[in-house]
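Fig. S4 source data, part A: sequence.
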Amino acid sequence: MIYLDNAATTKMYDEALKAYVDVCKNYFANPSALHSFGMEAENLIKDTKKYIGKLISSNESEIFFTKSATESNNIAIKSFEGVALTSKIEHSSVFNAFKHANFDEIRYVNNDKYGFLNEEDLKNKLDDKVTFVSFIYVNNEIGTIQDIKNISKIIKDYNKDIVIHIDATQAMGKIPCDVNELGIDIMSFSAHKFHGPKQLGGLYIRKNAQGKIRPLLDGGYQEIISSGTNNPPAIYACGIALKKQVESNEYEYIKELNHYLRTLIEDNIYDTYIISPLNNSSPYILDVAFANIKSEVLLHMLEEEEIYVSSGSACSKGDYSRILSALGIEKKYMDGAIRFSFSNEITKEDLDCTLKVLKSSIDMIRMVI
């Protein structure tokens, strides 16, 4: 099997899985309980918050856990009113959350063909009515890394009270997420994107913004911003996975894999369009479009050879890509976009095999057409 769909989800690290099982067996008490057994479970949560806080240069009291990055994004967005700024290339959990939020107006900042936000357009859309801004840090479909530091400076220089939220789901553990360097107020992340468990998300919320947050779920407010019994096994495993991801020092290797596959495709398959930018892009993601190809057909042909990729975001379920439309991709490439996303378990030999199957499959599809 060659698994190239890591942007959709990752395989749990053995260490994280072992930690998860250990906590399930030995620290299964409710962490909200007042007895000592419950406090042992609560301490595991505190230890994880301390680690994440140190990693992103925040206080542990600014770290909260949710059921997913989707919940995190919804909590952040639906806590505010007034006028919001975002873009048309956001993850569905942000883009759709805005549709059901309480804003008087949502303004969409323009982007170029590589997904980079137009900073002049951002400046033009700022006014005294803007209260909240939400942008994706690393685009989940094409890998573009926004210059959040500069974007935040533009916004805060205009009005320091505007709350800035970023979706760091594809960034956490892979590129620097220092919240002070980035200049942001709220940040979402998800454990299963860095080899942790599913159904465990997180939110960094700067202390002075916490009073503005409105929980989506009413109950015991165990995480203040979210109700429901905390999940110590998943939270602790999240911390173990994140630590291993950070300490893996795999970035340069992943970058080498990305460039290797990019070159293989460019040199061997004609009429292709590399959507992911060459610079300022996450090496974990490579989005490529093939002219006159149905990506779903190509995906299943690769699947027959146990090569697993995706046709854009896993959340789109094969629908027409909103993000590619916002990039202005030529019509002949629109239906033929495939996202390859890497982990350090992939080898160059895997990519050689992928290229061989990819080329023969595309040739076969084009012959039929």
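Fig. S4 source data, part B ends here. DSSP finds 13 helices and twelve strands in the chain.
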